[in-house]
Amino acid sequence: GTQGLSESRTTMKLLDRIERHLKESHMSATRFGRRAVGDPRFVLDLRAGRRPRRRTVEKVERYLADRPTC
Fold first, then answer.
1. Given this model, what pLDDT does residue 10 score?
2. Alpha-helical runs (H) found in 1-70
3. Nearest to 64 by CA among 5, 27, 6
4. Contact 35, 63 (CB under 8 A)
5. Phi and psi at residue 67, in whole multiples of 5°?
6. What angle do CA 19, 37, 16 make, to 5 degrees?
7. Which end of the chain is more exposed for a tag (fewer CB within 10 A), N or C?
């Protein structure tokens, strides 16, 4: 149904924000994953289509909010 569609769109938006953060902060994907959610494979898995749990998304949102890159 539409639930999965909006979920994957949210994941893509999150991944876009993470990719931008990685580029602007010159941080590796594994370091970001380890720091943000304690999982070095997190970003690699997202890129491969992993759908994170809501709690994990919230952790990432908090991590990004605490670290403005501008």
1. 84
2. 2-25, 29-37, 42-47, 54-66
3. 27
4. yes
5. -130, 70
6. 20
7. C
Report the 10 Å Cβ neighbour count for 68.
8
Mean pLDDT of 38-47: 98
Instruction: Using a cut of 0.70, tell me whether the model's pTM lies above it.
Output: yes
10's tokens: 């949210």
Longest dimension (CA), the chain: 38
The string of pLDDT tens digits covering residues 2-38 is 556 777 888 889 999 999 999 999 999 999 999 999 9
Amino acid 6 reads S
